[in-house]
Design brief:
Layout: E1 7-18, E2 21-23, E3 35-36, E4 47-50, E5 53-56, E6 63-64, E7 84-87, E8 91-97, E9 103-110, E10 114-120, E11 123-130, E12 136-144, E13 150-156, H1 159-164, E14 169-178
Length: about 180
């Protein structure tokens, strides 16, 4: 039986990320174009995500106005109070354009609760929350030769979690592992 050594294909250490996720301040029906959120952390023309829906912000604030619902290829939907509202693209923690490498897994860690997302060619494929005290994770994968794809790990951090820790930003590390 052959033994194949694992390599760190790409990595990042101690990357600092600020808040890019908050919560709905009230329930939202599928036609409202003004959206009330807990924290003013987005900018005009940002694309946000609530559940599977993407929304283009008109004017930002704790009440975002002039929003385009069902943006891009998503459908407008009703959302409950306190649902996560996050920057659609996440903040990129680690990205790598694969050619011939075999991807076997990903490892990620951070110093606060967070949500991680796995993107292939900028399309979100999977998200997972990580909660204190288990703030690191490994996603094993079957031996995958990605071909010519760009894989990205993205991070979302809620503003209230940073506030509760009396910090403005959090630190993260990650790596793609393979051969």
């Amino acid at each position: 039986m052959a033994v194949i050594a694992n390599l760190i294909i790409a990595s990042v250490a101690d990357k600092v990320i600020g808040a890019n996720m908050t919560l709905l301040a009230e329930a939202l029906d599928d036609s409202e174009t003004s959206i009330d959120i807990d924290d003013d952390i987005f900018s005009d023309a940002n694309v946000i995500r609530i559940g599977q829906e993407q929304i283009l912000i008109g004017t930002h604030g704790t009440t975002c106005t002039g929003c385009t619902r069902g943006y891009s290829t998503s459908d407008a939907a009703a959302h409950g109070d306190n649902q996560e509202v996050r920057l659609a693209a996440a903040t990129s923690l680690l990205s790598h354009a694969f050619t011939t490498e075999t991807l076997r897994g990903m490892w990620i860690s951070g110093n606060v609760d967070f949500r991680a997302g796995f993107f292939i060619d900028d399309v979100l494929k999977y998200t997972k929350p990580f909660n204190f005290p288990v703030l690191e994770g490994f996603w094993p994968m079957p031996d995958t030769v990605p071909g010519s794809y760009t894989f990205k790990l993205g991070i979302w951090v809620r503003k209230d979690i940073l506030d509760n820790g009396s910090i403005d930003e959090a630190e993260f590390s990650a790596m793609f592992i393979g051969s």
